[in-house]
Amino acid sequence: MVQEISLSLEETNKLRISIGLKPISVEAAETAPSTTTKEAPLTSESKPELTIEETNRLRASLGLKPIPLEEAASLVEAPIGENKPTNDDQVKLRLLDAKERLKRKGKTLLDDDQEVSQDDWLANLGIPAPKKAKTSKKVSPSHDLSGVKIGHNARELADVDGEIFTLKDSDLLEEENGELNNEELIRQAKLKKDLREKKMADNIKFNGRSYKFEDSEDEETERVLQELVVTGSTIKIPEKTTEIPKERDNKIALGSLFDDDVDAEKVEPVKMKKLKKRPKMKLKLNSRSATINNEELGMKTVELQSFDDSVGDEEAQLQEMISNRIKFKQSKRSKLTPEQIANDVVLSKRWELENQLEGELYANNTVYNDIADFLNSLTGSVLEVPEEDDYDEIKTETLASTTSIKKEVDVPQTQDEAKEETKLEEAGEESVAPDSTPTFNKGLASTLNFLKSRKIIDASTQQQQHESKMRREAAKEAELLRIKISIEERLLKEEFELDKAFLNLPKAERAEVLERALDQRLREKNIISDAPARGKYAQKSQSSRLDSYNPQVKLSYKDDTGVELDTKGAFKYLSHQFHGVGPGNSKVEKKLKKVKEERESTSETII
Amino acid sequence: MIEVLVNDRLGKKVKVKCLESDTIGDLKKMLSLQLGTSYDKLILKKGYSVYKDHISLDDYEIHDGFNFELYYG
Fold it and tell me: Where is the region Disordered (chain A) (predicted)?
């Protein structure tokens, strides 16, 4: 699993040089405590492994249970993997069992004993010793062995061929007959047990539960089998090994016991199941596809619902129609060619220009008043120059008691004119006129001058006059431009109406072509310019336009509750919004309370 | 020369030969060549202590067979 990488010295040196580090010298590598051959040099050299005796001594000094020597040896001798029985092992076991059985049938331990009779030992004096030695291995007095338990099962015994069985150590006072054991087998059993325990411990560690082992059944059987008893000279071994094939046979037999009909019955439900399953799957698929369809044609379903819900509801229908149209338009727009988009842009520019001009016309809500304009123009040109003469004349009039009839006739005439044009001012004039007795023999100008001197009409300053003049000029320009455009449009239309090719086009295209041509012509005639004017002229025009622009702006910030905020508060509010934080609940509550109180107090004062 | 082990516990265990006079940065460079990861992305740790690039292995008293924990930054 773990990918372990280690490079040789040459390779590392190459890499080091490529990085710019100095290479590791070969001598240094040789003198180094570790070499590439050793896996864990530190542990092997600086701390050599302790022997079992040493570890045991240490363990004893620590008060721990010493490690048994046998176990350690077995651990060394038999690795974990070898103890697991495989199929081959089982076959071997069976073979060995069969062999043993054959042997036992031919000869028993007792038979051997009978052959070697103890009584006529003198006759057997000449018989060579090795036979005895052979028997000594197997033979032990029959009466001694009878009833003795064997501490191993058949399998284990099958493994052990020609091994020595020893009597287990037991107390002298015990009444039991004793137990025959094989050291090798005991060791293996112990090892197995340890492994099992280890596994159990691991399981408990990882899952927090103790699982029943798969081998638990085997264990039980082993326990049963462990109590083998030596009867006479033979060891009765229940043929456990044969049971395994029996079970298999049973299975087969059970299978074969069923008739064809039964089989058919058995198969049928399976088929039914399959049949049942299939429709289910199909249904599922259908439902899925249905949902997908719904998702895909979401619009349709919505339409149907709306129809069902409100048949007479015209509003919903209208909205749907509108939304559909918008969608249709949008889809159409997406299909536009770049040329068409460019045309659209040009058109929109022109419209913007026209709108701008219109806006300038009605900027600052100024209404073009003919009378005011006329009067203002009079002040500039007529009133200021003959002022002194007027006064002289008035003086002369006041001084001279006799006045000419002509002059008297003129005054009411002028008064009438003034009446016609400025009704409001007339009242003031009448109220004031008798006191100072002015003469209005110079027409409207004198009247206006008089009114201004009496402060009935606000005398506009030079700057105001200039501004208003500018505005008027701009409005005039805009009007002129519009007129020009409209003239060009009309001319173009007339031209196009004569063209048959144009008339053959569909309506929508006709409008498009017309717009395009108009735009082109306007540009040719320099009525509108595509690019904004540059250089000092542009600056001039811009600045001149902005001369009259003097909007009075007052910024006011309000919070959620509608309370007006000062600059600091507004900054705080904005920053809170931006960073997604805000004051705590208690602060907010306090603020709300304050606002409520303030409102209440104001309402009380109003009442 | 010493040989140190670097384990990222994600399937990579690298043995790197280096000199004690090398800095941790040099070691990281060597490692990056062997692992294929940029050296500035490597973090060498042992327990909770992070090894700094400019200090040499000798200063850290890193001996042969030392085990580094490797993290990716």
Answer: 29-52, 408-440, 583-607
